[in-house]
Write a structure and sequence with these properties.
208 residues; Nuclear Transport Factor 2, Chain: A; globular; 5 strands; alpha+beta; 8 helices; five-stranded antiparallel beta sheet
């Protein structure tokens, strides 16, 4: 998931927020209705909480963080996106990275929900893929657009709760795309976490 996503995808990207895992999405012939209901509920909650133009940005940010923590495995997402560099980062670097990663997501997407124009998410089917994971296949239906946008969600159930661990838009993993971008940033900076974190701080500052 790139930090900058085309405006025509604002609702898709906004609801997706961030993807992760890059795990194979090979489905078995078992349904997982609970996962589908979880994704449908996320869509409804996001629209209700974030699309009112009269709500202050500060309040929308707060609501967005609640949705993010309630529906996404945010630390798992952040660690996977960072890749091998997580293992070599210090505890202080990890802590700062996790904070910056969450801020990047919030500041990159929170304003896009004010552009909501009646798009809706329809769950097409849900299938178990591996152990506690399920794939939820959905479509974002947009007014005056004949073709819906296909969005697939990898959902993991742990301790009785569902969390999103991967999102694919038209078959492209947003998590893999973001992982590749971060790897490129690190490569440009000789794999220095200090330089990488400095760049993330600047991105957050611009989005705040």
């Amino acid at each position: 998931m790139r930090i900058e996503i085309r405006r025509r995808r604002f609702l898709t990207a906004g609801i997706a927020l961030a993807g992760i895992a890059g795990l194979p999405a090979v489905a078995f012939a078992q349904t997982s209705p609970g996962a589908g209901q979880f994704i449908a509920g996320l869509s409804e909650r996001a629209i209700a909480a974030l699309t009112d133009k009269n709500t202050s940005r500060e309040e929308r940010e707060r609501r967005f963080r609640v949705l993010l923590h309630d529906h996404f495995a945010i630390e798992t997402i952040a660690r996977w996106v960072l890749g091998r560099h997580w293992a070599t980062a210090s505890s202080d670097e990890r802590a700062e990275y996790l904070r910056l990663f969450e801020d990047l997501i919030v500041y990159s997407y929170v304003d896009r929900f004010t552009e909501y124009a009646g798009e809706r998410l329809e769950v097409v089917k849900t299938l178990v893929v591996d152990g506690n994971d399920a794939m939820v296949y959905s479509a974002i239906v947009r007014a005056n657009q004949p073709e819906p946008v296909e969005v697939d969600w990898r959902v993991r159930q742990r301790d009785g709760k569902f969390k999103i661990v991967d999102v694919m838009v038209k078959g492209i993993s947003l998590g893999i795309t973001q992982r590749q971008e971060f790897a490129s940033v690190l490569s440009r900076n000789n794999n220095s976490m200090l330089a990488f974190l400095a760049e993330l701080r600047e991105r957050v500052k611009k989005g705040a």
